[in-house]
Amino acid sequence: MLRTILRTPLNLTATLNLPNFHRHSPSLCHYSRRFFCADRDSPPCTQASSELPRVDSLVGGCDYQHWLIVMHPPSHNYPQREQIIHRYITTLSMALGSEEAAKKSIYSISTKYYYAFSCEVPENLTHKIKSLPGVKWVLPDSYLCPDENGYGGEPFVDGEVVSYDEKYHSHWLHKECYTGSNERTCSSKSRRKRKKA
């Protein structure tokens, strides 16, 4: 879902407030710390952020039961994959009461290109999750592609993450591709590796 938001910011009610975002989308009007509205003709937004406007018909898989939890990057250098996963589980367990409940709730994670995990929880818990240490955004999750019934990321099944495979981030890697002259070139280097270089 994160890639979908970055690519098409007007298709969701909850949009990431990224640097230089307004330069590309001047029509957006900010009415809370986390949410935006996209109506050019309306007066400044006054709606509180406690309730999300429903857009189920516009975004596949957006049922307000599946959520993307975007985390702040770790303060120290790049941790091991197991440490990242443990951080996700520990964070969610603070809202759900146990690590077992957190493991059952998480269905997808990211350990390479961005720090985020997806979980299935009732909407009334999202504000509690947002207030937890290290949590940056809590966004309604949606299918990665309109024609696919999948949320994307590295699958987390029965409390266990599957072995890492680049195919789980193929859409993210596709974004790393660029077109130069008449040739399409892709860089398979992760941002992590490029930062180290």
UniProtKB/TrEMBL annotation:
Source organism (scientific name): Abeliophyllum distichum
InterPro entries, per database record: MORF/ORRM1/DAG-like (IPR039206), MORF/ORRM1/DAG-like_MORF (IPR054059)
Gene Ontology terms: biological process: RNA metabolic process
Domain named MORF/ORRM1/DAG-like MORF: residues: 64-156
Keywords: Transit peptide
Residues in the signal sequence: none
Coiled-coil region(s): none
Entry superkingdom: Eukaryota
Protein name (Swiss-Prot/TrEMBL): Multiple organellar RNA editing factor 7
Keyword Lipoprotein in record: no
Transmembrane segments: none
